[in-house]
Amino acid sequence: MSERHAPLAMDAARFRALGHRLVDEIAERLSRIPAGAVNPNETPEALRAALGLGAPLPERGADAGALLDEAARGLFEHSLFNGHPRFFGYITSSPAPIGMLADLLASALNANVGAWMLAPAATEIESETVRWIAELIGYPSDCGGLLVSGGNLANLVCFFAARAALAPWDVRKHGVGAGPALRVYTSAETHTWVQKAADLSGIGTDAIRWIETDDDLRMDLKALERRVAADRAAGETPFLVIGTAGSVSTGAVDPLPALAEFCRAEKLWFHVDGAYGGFAARVEGAPAELAALREADSVAVDPHKWLYTPLEAGCALVRDPMKLRGAFAYDPPYYHFEGRTINYVEYGPQNSRGFRALKVWLAMRQVGAAGHRQMIAQDLELSRRLAAAVDRHPELERFTQGLSITTFRYVPRELRGRIGEPETEHLLDALNRELLDRMQRSGEVFVSNAVVRGRYLLRACIVNFHTRPSDVEAVAEIAARLGAEIHRGLTKSTAR
């Protein structure tokens, strides 16, 4: 062939025209989100039909401009918006606009941030981003770390570092079966990532010691001490204690200072799952125990939770950078890397790695540490305000308020005096399950659920810089109104 004409190629003028048009469309659509529904409330069949899905792969291509217009329209009209000011369902933040633009810029570079020589600028920016994240939460800034997809993988990276560092034999070479059974200790409130890590690491989920919690859903230190001692007496090998800095259900924070002291005394690796609450460590009004993050051997945090970064962005921090290399580095002959630079392929499980750090780095430069602390503090205050609104309502019962999570349920007036009776509790669980479904489908507000001490509850989590006081006040009003409607319906149905 004398010349090549690639179907995917696009000249600068065409790219510029389509890009400008798409940015204009996104900006317009974003401006309409607060006035629209949080959730489109569609069946899977209706959604597939609306998006024209189900057709075979086309043999011939289509116009790029038309495709982008169609995609933008379809996605904005048929998506759940975690950037909506009344999205309180999960710990996924509203995305920062500079992060959206940063993802475009990172995609244009298409850097593989696995090796310095492949992505020198991106590697150095990621290194600085890791250092800044450590500084923001009060962790030693000379630590090792890297950006990963999210909290599951960030925690898993730290788990593998602990396993390689504290197993009394070469566990990477000989496997977990070459020595005594390895044991992990964590609160009953810990996220399910620990089960994935135990499974993938080969120690098995039976190696997890689920330690009971106190009345505030925090790990019971005495129970931990007893279990570690019992396992050692049985010839097993305790190696890792996991503290939770903000549980998924209620925002509970374990007694991190006491856990750090215990791990030092027992020569155990102390890891903190701070995927949610870690970024509040130096924020006024947050639990004082979060300051003990600095004592941990490793910490996982999620910029796409409470740094308002677009997905995906998690971060693993390890006090001793060499412990990461000890868990992941290999030196095959087809690698030719310089030892004086960071090659992130040696610090985690991925070889091919996207430029996740750019959107975090630019946002941190845009607002600084003070700006992030301000927004997190405002989320904390709004959650307390929501709890107060629930407390004021005669048909709502609050259960917990921790960090930026409030849990509560709808209780009809006539059932208030019968709370705790098995029949009443069964009825309230059923009522609040239906209430959650109704609230999510209504489009007015989006909350999720939690089960606390056997009670089925509504759960509102605020990690959203678009949320206003009026939005949190509306949650109590909507829950009470829809709850009353459901209760009336159930009462009429029973009367028949």
The domain count comes to: 3
Per CATH, the architecture of the largest domain is: 3-Layer(aba) Sandwich
User: What do we call the CATH topology of the largest domain?
Assistant: Aspartate Aminotransferase, domain 2
Order of helices and strands: HHHHHEHHEHEHEHEEHEHHEEHEEH
Numbering strands along the chain, what is their spatial order in the largest sheet?
1-7-6-5-4-2-3
Would you tell me the structural class of the helices and strands?
alpha/beta
Number of strands: 11
Report the helical percentage.
Answer: 40-55%
The Rg value, from CA coordinates, equals: 25 Å
Parts with pLDDT < 50 across at least 5 consecutive residues = none
Largest sheet: 7 strands, mixed
Strand content: 5-15%
Number of helices: 15
Provide mean pLDDT, rounded: 95
Description:
It is a single chain. With 496 residues, this protein is α/β, with parallel strands linked by helices. It has 3 domains: 12-80; 112-355, Aspartate Aminotransferase, domain 2, CATH 3.40.640.10; 371-495, Aspartate Aminotransferase, domain 1, CATH 3.90.1150. It is built from 15 helices and 11 strands. The strands form 2 sheets. The chain has a 7-stranded mixed beta sheet, sandwiched between helices. It has a 4-stranded antiparallel beta sheet with strand order 8-9-11-10. Helix 6 (151-166) packs across helix 8. The chain is globular.
